[in-house]
């Protein structure tokens, strides 16, 4: 039982950053903004969270710093795409590259340093609980509140939303900032709670999986939980298989989560009805008020 509980806790720890980052990106995409910079925002959150915790000795400060770093990167993305109308896909990729390079520079002095792990009870810490609360709040906000309706309206038809008096750019800035804060928190979870140390490029592609999870969940918050824990389980089972001594190449096991991501996206893309029903119609489209 102890071994099974240890595996379960490991799966939860692997799934939590995916869940937090994906739910933030879901809100951003619901408003019509496609931010491919999740990986860059996560890695900046990881280094900021670790650095702040190491320097202050407070994990609470580290968590706040990780969210602030992610939101800061998101605001840069927002300024370029929402104000200057830069291409969202290219800008998101640039944000990822900037985050990877900048985090390596900032984190150079933190390599090899140690901090105390975020306090937990039998492996369950406050951020794991918060991740489920966050999903519930986002689901309630999007489908039970007036502002959530406004966000979905902006994502589905920004021209119509603008004609109704909605602040399209303002709402999208708010959603982008929220998505960035969640991505930063997801990165901070890795360096503060999961592995309390700084390792260059420690997000290891989790930001890209979080992006895929939004599509996998067909832009519905509750399905993000299922997707995050599915991919978290797959990634951990790959390590479990290695410990069992089975003659499977470790390189194949390491890439299993990404192969499953590709297969899942291919299967979902075949269901045109579901995609048409939930995909924000204005996703990735720039908005200009005078058009």
3D structure, described in words:
This protein is an all-alpha fold and 291 residues long. It has a single domain (2-278), classed as ABC transporter involved in vitamin B12 uptake, BtuC (Orthogonal Bundle). The protein is 74% helix and 1% strand. It contains 13 helices and two strands. It has helices spanning 2-30, 38-56, 59-83, 88-106, 126-144, 146-156, 158-163, 168-194, 206-216, 221-243, 250-254, 256-269, 272-278; strands at residues 120-121, 124-125. It has a two-stranded antiparallel ribbon. A hairpin with a 2-residue loop joins strand 1 (120-121) and strand 2. Helix 2 (38-56) packs across helix 9 (206-216) and helix 10 runs antiparallel to helix 12.
Write the layout of secondary structure elements.
Layout: H1 2-30, H2 38-56, H3 59-83, H4 88-106, E1 120-121, E2 124-125, H5 126-144, H6 146-156, H7 158-163, H8 168-194, H9 206-216, H10 221-243, H11 250-254, H12 256-269, H13 272-278
Helix pairs in contact: 1-5, 1-8, 1-9, 1-10, 2-3, 2-4, 2-8, 2-9, 3-4, 3-8, 5-6, 5-10, 9-10, 9-12, 10-12
Give a brief outline of the structure.
This protein has 291 residues and is mainly alpha-helical. Helix content is 74%, strand content 1%. The chain has helices at residues 2-30, 38-56, 59-83, 88-106, 126-144, 146-156, 158-163, 168-194, 206-216, 221-243, 250-254, 256-269, 272-278; strands spanning 120-121, 124-125.
């Amino acid at each position: 039982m102890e071994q099974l509980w240890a595996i379960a806790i490991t799966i939860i720890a692997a799934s939590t950053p995916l869940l937090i980052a994906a739910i933030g990106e879901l809100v951003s995409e619901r408003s019509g903004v496609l931010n491919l910079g999740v990986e860059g925002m996560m890695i900046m959150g990881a280094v900021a969270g670790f650095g702040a915790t190491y320097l202050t000795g407070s994990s609470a400060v580290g968590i706040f710093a990780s969210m602030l770093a992610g939101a800061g990167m998101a605001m840069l993305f927002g300024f370029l795409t929402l104000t200057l109308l830069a291409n969202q896909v290219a800008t998101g990729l640039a944000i990822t590259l900037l985050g990877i390079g900048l985090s390596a520079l900032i984190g150079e002095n933190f390599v090899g340093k140690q901090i105390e792990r975020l306090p937990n009870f039998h492996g369950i810490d406050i951020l794991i609980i918060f991740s489920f609360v966050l999903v519930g709040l986002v689901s309630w906000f999007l489908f039970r509140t007036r502002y959530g309706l406004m966000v979905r309206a902006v994502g589905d038809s920004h021209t119509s939303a603008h004609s109704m008096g909605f602040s399209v750019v303002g709402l999208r800035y708010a959603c982008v900032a929220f998505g960035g804060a969640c991505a930063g928190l997801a990165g901070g979870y890795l360096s503060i709670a999961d592995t309390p140390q700084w390792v260059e490029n420690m997000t290891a592609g989790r930001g890209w999986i979080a992006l895929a999870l939004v599509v996998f969940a067909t832009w519905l918050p509750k399905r993000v939980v299922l997707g995050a824990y599915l991919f978290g389980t797959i990634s951990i089972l790959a390590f479990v298989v290695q410990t069992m001594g089975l003659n499977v190449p470790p390189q194949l096991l390491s890439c299993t989560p990404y192969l499953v991501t590709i297969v899942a996206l291919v299967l979902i893309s075949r269901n045109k009805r579901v995609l048409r029903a939930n995909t924000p119609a204005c996703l990735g489209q720039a908005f200009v008020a005078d058009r």
